[in-house]
């Protein structure tokens, strides 16, 4: 198990006059085995935080600590075993010309596992797909099945932290329920730590104990799940998000 | 109720190597001056229904119906030229993602002016004035600047408002909105919906609102059709949606995580093969 700590994290793109500060001094801590949510609108920097943690964006400052050990610019090999990411769009994150077997096999080989064959079978079992799916290509899978493959790939190196970037926003609600249940089960059976990005507050409330609300690259509020359910946020922006998530009210038409 | 659209036994068929595939399998409904929601999962045929009404299904796909009428005029019997007059002038459609429905190499203004002049034959000056007025109607504060801009300079919410302005500039009687807000953030979503709501009310239009979001449809529409595997399995008043009885509708509602009612596990939808076989429920009133 690993905990995740972010302190004064800033992430930027470009330089000089073209510099955009995507994340400005974000701090939060995810205890080992907990599930932490990040919500906000597009462009608020929530996905950027995940990408900076996992090493997809080199331009960051501040501190990222996994299990107390701060990360440098170059991440140790063990980091990639310990921290894995599931991306938003299962249509874009799987190689179209690789079978499920190749996708999982490659990850396992890269991480130096010897018993690749039995591990692939076990992983597919764990995400509820089973053997019949092993030699299929992504286009032969539905959206929900693809996301299960992406989750299996993330689980392959036996990580303790999963970074989930809108894992269900491309899926139908019925499939979303299945994938969220799968994620809850996996967290329990493997004692995983989750950091989950979503724009859907109900999903975050269902999955996470604590949630950070982001706006324009800054965390405006960190809120426990009870406060969220009780609709008692401290920041007006959170209030606004919560209200919008409840559906459409005709009274909004007059004010617009 | 005054009928704008009247549809009976609509079918959309695509030939495939495994035989014919019916995306829409004989559905009937009508539309008055109301907000009608169509909900269902991906692949349930809801978007195909919207496209079929405008005859936007390309061969080898086929659209068949016992009746497909707009104010008593048969749409299926029309020539392509007559159909062009219907599209945009009588019935307009707003699609999901403005990134793919606006022309990327044409300025926003030109696109709105083009559609207006095509349908009304107005002068350039009148069309320009009308376009400005329409952009103001969708709450765009600086219409002159937006008219000169290219679509990539606009945010998603702006793009979708431009689409709505473009689709309503000819004052159609029916608007088909296919997931108009799914690509937008929640707060922008509310704005765009309120714009659609206000314009539809003011102009007394009929709206077909296609969405996968049950809560949104329940709060936004007057009446709802629930589609499954190309058929309508249930119809109800939108405010009664939460009391829906069909196990499919119930399953969809229960699979949603809820802010106010925590549950340890979400209910996964168990599909009954009988749902696919059951005959379509009529949405005609």
List the helices and strands and how they pair.
The complex is a heterodimer of chains A (256) and B (285).
Chain A: E1 4-13, E2 20-30, E3 35-39, H1 46-54, E4 60-66, E5 69-70, H2 77-82, E6 83-86, H3 100-110, H4 116-126, H5 143-155, E7 161-165, H6 173-190, E8 193-198, H7 201-207, E9 210-215, E10 218-224, H8 225-229, H9 236-244, H10 251-255
Parallel strand pairs in A: 3-8, 3-9, 6-7, 7-8
Antiparallel strand pairs in A: 1-2, 1-4, 4-5, 9-10
Helix pairs in contact in A: 3-4, 5-6
Chain B: E1 5-16, E2 19-31, E3 35-39, H1 46-53, E4 62-64, E5 67-70, E6 73-74, H2 80-86, E7 91-94, H3 98-101, H4 108-120, H5 124-137, H6 143-148, H7 156-168, E8 174-178, H8 186-203, E9 206-211, H9 214-220, E10 223-228, E11 231-237, H10 247-254, H11 273-277
Short description:
The complex is a heterodimer of chains A (256) and B (285). Chain A has 10 helices and 10 strands. Chain A is an alpha/beta fold and 256 residues long.
Main features:
heterodimer; A: 256 residues; alpha/beta; Rossmann fold; 10 helices; 10 strands; globular; B: 285 residues
Explain the overall architecture:
The complex is a heterodimer of chains A (256) and B (285). Chain A is an alpha/beta fold and 256 residues long. Chain A has helices at 46-54, 77-82, 100-110, 116-126, 143-155, 173-190, 201-207, 225-229, 236-244, 251-255, and strands at residues 4-13, 20-30, 35-39, 60-66, 69-70, 83-86, 161-165, 193-198, 210-215, 218-224. Chain A has one domain: P-loop containing nucleotide triphosphate hydrolases (Rossmann fold, 3-Layer(aba) Sandwich). Chain A is built from ten helices and ten strands. In chain A, strands 6-7-8-3-9-10 form a six-stranded mixed sheet, sandwiched between helices. A four-stranded antiparallel sheet of chain A has the order 2-1-4-5, covered by helices on one side. In chain A, helix 6 links the parallel strand 7 (161-165) and strand 8. In chain A, helix 3 (100-110) crosses helix 4 (116-126) and helix 5 packs parallel to helix 6 (173-190). Chain B has 285 residues and is α/β, with parallel strands linked by helices. In chain B, 36% of the residues lie in helices and 24% in strands. Chain B has eleven helices and eleven strands. The longest helix of chain B has 18 residues, at 186-203. Chain B starts with a strand and ends in an 8-residue tail after the last helix. Chains A and B meet through helix 6, helix 7, helix 8, helix 9 and helix 10 of A and helix 8 and helix 9 of B.
């Amino acid at each position: 198990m690993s905990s995740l700590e972010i302190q004064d994290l800033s992430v930027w793109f470009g330089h000089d006059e073209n510099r955009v500060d995507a994340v400005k001094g974000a701090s939060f801590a995810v205890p080992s085995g907990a599930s932490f949510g990040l919500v906000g609108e597009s462009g608020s920097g929530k996905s950027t935080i995940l990408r900076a943690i996992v090493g997809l964006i080199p331009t960051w400052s501040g501190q990222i600590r996994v299990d107390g050990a701060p990360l440098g610019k170059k991440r140790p090999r063990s980091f990639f075993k310990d921290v894995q990411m599931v991306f938003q769009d299962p249509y874009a994150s799987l190689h179209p010309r690789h079978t499920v077997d190749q996708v999982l096999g490659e990850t396992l080989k890269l991480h130096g596992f010897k018993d690749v064959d039995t591990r692939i079978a076990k992983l597919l079992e764990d995400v509820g797909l089973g053997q019949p799916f092993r030699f299929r290509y992504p286009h032969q899978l539905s959206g929900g099945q693809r996301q299960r493959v992406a989750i299996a790939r993330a689980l392959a190196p036996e990580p303790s932290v999963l970074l989930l970037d809108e894992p269900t926003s491309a899926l139908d609600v019925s499939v979303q329920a299945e994938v969220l249940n799968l994620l809850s089960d996996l967290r329990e059976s493997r004692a995983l730590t989750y950091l989950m990005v979503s724009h859907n507050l109900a999903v975050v409330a269902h999955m996470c104990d604590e949630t950070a609300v982001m706006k324009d690259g800054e965390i405006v509020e960190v809120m426990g799940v009870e406060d969220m359910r009780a609709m008692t946020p401290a920041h007006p922006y959170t209030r606004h998000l919560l209200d919008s998530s409840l559906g459409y009210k005709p009274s909004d038409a007059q004010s617009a | 109720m005054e009928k704008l659209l009247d549809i009976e036994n609509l079918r959309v068929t695509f030939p495939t190597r495994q035989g014919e595939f019916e995306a829409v399998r004989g559905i009937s409904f009508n539309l008055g001056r109301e907000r009608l929601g169509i909900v269902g999962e991906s692949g349930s045929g809801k978007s195909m229904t919207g496209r079929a009404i405008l005859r936007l299904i390309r061969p080898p796909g086929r659209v068949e119906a016992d009746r497909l009428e707009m104010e008593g005029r048969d749409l299926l019997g029309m020539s392509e030229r007559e159909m062009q007059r219907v599209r945009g002038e009588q019935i307009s459609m707003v699609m999901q993602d403005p990134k793919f429905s606006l022309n990327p190499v044409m300025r926003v203004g030109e696109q709105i002016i083009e559609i207006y002049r095509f349908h009304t034959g107005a002068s350039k000056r009148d069309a320009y004035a009308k376009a400005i007025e329409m952009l103001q109607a969708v709450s765009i504060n600086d219409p002159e600047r937006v008219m000169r801009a290219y679509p990539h300079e606009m945010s998603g919410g702006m793009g979708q408002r431009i689409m709505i302005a473009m689709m309503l500039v000819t004052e159609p009687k029916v608007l088909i909105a296919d997931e108009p807000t799914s690509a937008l953030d929640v707060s922008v979503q509310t704005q765009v919906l309120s714009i659609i709501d206000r314009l539809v009310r003011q102009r007394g239009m009929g709206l077909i609102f296609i969405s996968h979001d049950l809560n949104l449809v329940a709060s936004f529409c007057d009446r709802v059709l629930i589609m499954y595997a190309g058929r309508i399995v249930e119809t109800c008043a939108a405010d009664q949606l939460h009391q829906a009885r069909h196990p499919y509708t119930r399953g969809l509602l229960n699979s949603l995580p809820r802010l106010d009612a925590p549950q340890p596990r979400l209910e996964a939808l168990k599909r009954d093969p009988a749902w696919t076989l059951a005959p379509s429920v009529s949405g005609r009133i």
